[in-house]
Amino acid sequence: MKLILKRVVCIVLFFAAANVMLASGTNDGSKLWFTNFSLPADYNGHEFSSVVISEYSPTFEIIQNEFISSLNQLFTQNTKSNSKTSAGSICIGTLQNDFIANSIQPEILKNAGSDGFIIKYLADDDITIIAANTDNGCLYGTYHFLRLLCTNPQALNDLIVENPAYKRRILNHWDNLDGTVERGYAGRSIWLWDDLPEKLNPRIIDYARANASIGINGTVLNNVNASPAILKEEYLQKVKVVADVLRPYGIQVYLSVNFSSPKILGGLPDSDPLKPEVKDWWNNKVAEIYQLIPDFGGFVVKANSEGQPGPQDYGRTHADGANMLADALNPYKGIVMWRAFVYNPSGDDRAKQAYNEFKPLDGKFRNNVMIQVKNGPVDFQPREPISPLFGAMEHTTLIPELQITKEYLGFSDHWAYLGTLFQEFLQTDTYQKGRNTTVSRVTNGDVFNDSITGIAGVSNIGQDINWCGSHSAQANWYVFGRLAWNPDLPAKTIAEEWLEQTFSHNTTFIKEMGRVMMESREAVVNYMTPLGLHHLMGWSHHYGPEPWCEIPGARPDWLPTYYHKADSYGIGFNRSSTGSNAVEQYAEPLKTMFDDPQLCPEKFLLWFHHLPWDYTMSNGRELWDELCYKYSEGVTQAKRFRETWNSMEKFVDERQFKETSDKLDTQVKEAIWWRDACLLYFQTFSKREIPAELDEPVHQLDELKKLKFDLKHHN
Ligand code: GCW
Fold first, then answer.
1. What is the four-CA torsion angle of 24, 28, 34, 37, rounded to 10 degrees?
2. Which member of 4, 129, 351, 514 has the lowest number of beta carbons within 10 Å of its beta carbon?
């Protein structure tokens, strides 16, 4: 300890603890996963009494403040228990810190990369070192250390080396400049554009902290359906203020841009990407942005998709458009995330179109372009097979796009933990370059030599006091960050870690609710779209079942009938080699597997096949019966979740308990709504009975068809 005292510049000592816990019964969720910020009851680690920080920067100031408040809170509480052992110190810094430079081998630190860190306990000195190559690495190390103190303190005795899998871990906000949020179920936008640049929403600092605590290092502030106005000088001044606040938390700001901006904002005759005046306009705009925001991340573009303008308006390709922007950003190290979410009503099977358009462009994009691809080939359904583009674009970097906001999984009302969905996707083997070329490995630089890598998640954050519209939905923001950092972390570990930090250390609580979380997404699949069904939801708002939905004159690929194709023979979309042949876009053995109903995983059966109602499933049941069992199972699961939660009252705050309990009531009610609507409607084609041992529907089909869903109550 003396040794340190001689060498360090700054010692942080602790002050009397502030009471930062909320009074019982008032827990509103505003503290996210810092709510139960306390040591486990059986904690027998160190009573940390000092922190040594010898460097200064705005980021180190945050680190220092985190330590002052956190350790005060943790150890003041802890002295109430009798678990105190020895007093320990923490030394945090980069190789600029002499003690760190002398105590660790530089090769170990090399393995931590630019955002990673190491945590090492030096028994002789009774010091825990948190070391990184950068300030941001130290910040991530700080949060990791604090997380482990609260959830798994034993782990701090071993050497920890962390290096995130993806370099860019980015939230995409679909926030409009008028304060609304597309597909947002947690209130209006947190940016409060009208108040900026004079006034900043103070919650943006909490937002930055929450993101940094789970390793998120980028945020796209506005909707991909982008208003050109975001690039006006007036808005860039606002963006600058946000960027300045996020910067010390290691978060870079990005913007979604409208491809027609040169025409709309700049008054040019058009926005043809090959015209010199259009290029000049972008070059000047980019220069203006970097003048204000020197570490600006880059652009996201939704082009020639769902009515948005794009290079094809001028007979140019996606590569022409993306490269023009990439060239403008390149001198500043900015990047382009060009979305592959394209489909045309007059085109081929919607599930094939992104591949059809982008595969031929492989190798035609600049190095600072990433093609942003949704996890599945259609659109964030409760379950989809992976998009066949993953692994197929050997010469192009792909950035996976996940949806954290649950547009198709019950908004923020249903408890659906997405850790299992994200994991299923990231760990799927694409087989594109032989075995074990999983989605995460073909996108994080392991398999291909990508110079930039990233992963994007469409945010579920809004102005609601609990940020996400419900307590349970916070877990999806959390798990996105944790998996972006390490896609190999088990979804269960992350669920338990989140439960412990958000609610309670009680092991029964964690075990029981961990089980609920791990089952929750599958339950939603069961009561909404089992066996590979998809897109059965209501028109436009996408909430609740409307498999019958017909809107005169509507695009067919926006209607459920396009997808389920139920008729007197059977149900499902034939994407096999006798149908749309979407299977052909996958590598072997996936292609053969998906093509044959006998080999196709049953969870994807009706995604790839149109099968007769009496088709025999692997368990011997007929398809119709199996569908009935799946829908019923979903309802049973939802009821079980509610029962489990209701038996947990003693472990959680009254307000958190009640609010979650109410949501689970809604979920059960709506699971029944889904089951009844789908089974009664499909029964009009199958003309078969619901198996006698299952519950009968409680609604009438006509009654359900008349139901008008009021989106206002869910926004
Ligand atoms: O999922 C669909 C949504 C649209 C969204 C679009 C997209 C932002 O229904 O609201 O638009 O995808 O991802 O571009």
1. 0
2. 4
55 carries an active-site annotation: no
Q: Assess whether the C-beta atom of 380 lies below 6 angstroms from ligand 1.
A: yes
Average pLDDT, the chain: 94
Residue of 407, 500, 522, 676 marked catalytic:
407
In tens, the pLDDT along 529-547 reads 999 999 999 999 999 999 9
Q: Token pair of 23, please?
A: 């009074």
Task: Tell me the fold of 2-162.
Answer: Chitobiase; domain 2 (3.30.379)
Identified catalytic residue from 306, 643, 662, 689: 306
User: Can you tell me which atom of ligand 1 is nearest the CA of 182?
Assistant: 10
Contact 159, 120 (CB under 8 A): yes
28 in catalytic set: no
Condensed to tens digits (0 to 9), the pLDDT of residues 42-59 reads 999 888 888 999 899 999
DSSP 8-state code for residue 706: H
Selecting among 379, 384, 496, 670, the annotated active-site residue is: 379
Domain coordinates in residue numbering, the chain: 2-162, 168-502, 526-573+610-714
- Most confident residue range from 26-30, 67-71, 274-278, 346-350: 274-278
Q: What pLDDT sits at residue 25?
A: 81
Residue type present at position 310 = G
CATH class of 526-573+610-714: alpha beta
pTM confidence score: 0.97
Q: 409 is written with which tokens?
A: 């999984």
**352 CA from centroid of ligand 1 (Å):** 17
Q: How many CB atoms lie within 10 A of CB 517?
A: 26
Nearest-atom index, ligand 1, CA of 302: 14
